[in-house]
Amino acid sequence: MRVSSLQKMRAGAEEAESSGYQRVVLKNASPHHYLRVRLVLEDESTRVSAVDLKTFITSCLRSLFGEVGAALNVDVLKYDEETLTALLRVPSRGLVKLWSSLTLQGFYQNQACAFRVLQVSPFLLALTGNSRDLQLD
Amino acid sequence: MSADLSRTQRNLLVCERSSFLDEKNRVSSQVERLRFNYKVSVLLPECGSASSHLESILNSFSSFYLIKQLPLYELLDKDFLQSAVYQGSVYGLSFRTRIDEDNCVALMPNGHLVFSLDKDAFETLGLEGRPSRSNRTSSRYEVTVDLRDGTMAPGGRGYLRLLQGLTSRLKLQMDFLISHHPGGRASLQPLLSRCDWSEHKPEVCQHALSHLVHPTLRSCEPHDLLEWIGAVHGAVSRENSSSDFLSTLTCLEPEATISRVTSVSACGLLLPQDLQHLVEELRCHLQQAQTNSWASVTVHGFTDSPVSWGDGERDVLTGGHDLYNLLMFPDHTYRLHLAAGAQNTCPP
């Protein structure tokens, strides 16, 4: 079955025109970086909405980098309230500022907290798979 | 200081456009070059009954085996070398070891045994190696042994030295994923019979998406295209405006809306040969599809693999894992994007 399907492909391919070959290598050209982060709180029953999280991230940036840092356009692409896991997008020039401000933030509403950065990539597509999540038990 | 904060680690995106009919196209060799594949995701619009055929293709992927606490010297067993390493292609990778914290090992189809070790393990093992190219201050070392080389034949000087290192000096033991093409379990039996092992099939998931808005797939910018495909696979909403508080992600230059798209994915230790077969079957399907149809295949590598594209060293720093996306059209043309992390070698 596989051999006959390949033969059909070759037969139809004679009529198709082949386009030119083009290869481009883009280095450091990604306009955005994407992070998968999880907020770990001392009181695990605390509810944090997506709006609360975005406000908190902005305040983290403000506390470390001031109003200029807080003006960084951070998008919360996806948020899971159950696990407090979020998918963030940030302009590449702001990645270090965002990551460092999340790392150094230790308190959320008077309780200890920590941001776990699970994945970072210049491609959103990379965050749709993580081999560290593979469970085989 | 602000200039430093705006810099990110080096990342590469290789964008290729061609036709499967073009002599220069190297899609097959590029699929082969990413040895350790964790996940494949397929997007197929308006496929109707073909979705069940697609799912059956993914269910036919080769099994792989998890060996718990494999003592690494077992990989030097003569029977195993004869049945699995010298013949066919063996794919082996340490499991649940982190590339930036733990010692990682990979067994390549060309017979190379690659170790990514911390400083203490490297000095204890006592073999020739070199510091990691990606970051000389991170104290990672890479040791590569060619098991098909003459000096590594059982009883040879190199073989005995490695065996002594793994049995008496550095008794490495770790969970190990392994598979073999074309022999499968029969070729791995000499190793499996001495270990605690379990057989696994790639886990297949399928779901349907409705009313999918897509950009001009043939001409949109590579980063926009990958962002759109990532948003589809990640179920990220693109119905935002530039003034929204939470997210400003939108679909740039929307071209059309598709009423139904099938998304199928498989996770596990996937062999490049199975992925080649999947690509061929999708090409066949596209021949019978409408002229404005398309198919997208995304393949993710293992984050903690010590090897990158081909035999290149894997970066231990951040920057994501290796992945590629192949977007195919009915007229045999394609767009291929290969991504590599910070200090990895450029994809082929």
In short:
The complex is a heterodimer of chains A (137) and B (348). Chain A has 137 residues and is of the alpha+beta class.
What key attributes describe this structure?
heterodimer, A: 137 residues, alpha+beta, B: 7-stranded antiparallel beta sheet
Structural class of chain A: alpha+beta
Report strand % of chain B.
Answer: 25-35%
Given helix and strand content, the structural type of chain B is alpha+beta
Fraction of helical residues of chain B: 10-25%
Q: What sort of overall outline of chain A do the alpha carbons produce when their principal axes are compared?
A: globular
Main sheet makeup of chain B = 8 strands, antiparallel
Silhouette of chain B: globular
Please give the oligomerization state of what you see: heterodimer
The strand order across the widest sheet of chain B is 7-8-6-5-4-9-3-10
Strand order of the largest sheet of chain A: 3-4-2-6-5
Overall number of strands of chain A: 6
Biggest interchain interface, per-side counts: A-B, 59 and 70 residues
Helix content of chain A: 25-40%
Main sheet properties of chain A: 5 strands, antiparallel
Which stretches of chain B are low in confidence, meaning pLDDT under 50 for 5 or more residues running? none
What does this protein look like?
- The complex is a heterodimer of chains A (137) and B (348).
- Chain A has 137 residues and is an alpha+beta fold.
- Chain A contains 3 helices and 6 strands; from the N terminus they run αββαββαββ.
- In chain A, a hairpin with a 4-residue loop joins strand 3 (75-80) and strand 4 (85-91).
- In chain A, 34% of the residues are buried.
- By secondary structure, chain B is an alpha+beta fold.
- Chain B is built from 9 helices and 15 strands.
- In chain B, the strands form 2 sheets. Chain B has an 8-stranded antiparallel sheet with strand order 7-8-6-5-4-9-3-10. A 7-stranded antiparallel sheet of chain B has the order 1-15-14-13-2-12-11, with helices on both faces.
- Chains A and B meet through helix 1, strand 1, strand 2, helix 2 and strand 3 of A and strand 1, strand 2, helix 8, helix 9 and strand 13 of B.
- Strand 1 of chain A pairs antiparallel with strand 1 (12-19) of chain B, so a sheet runs across the interface.
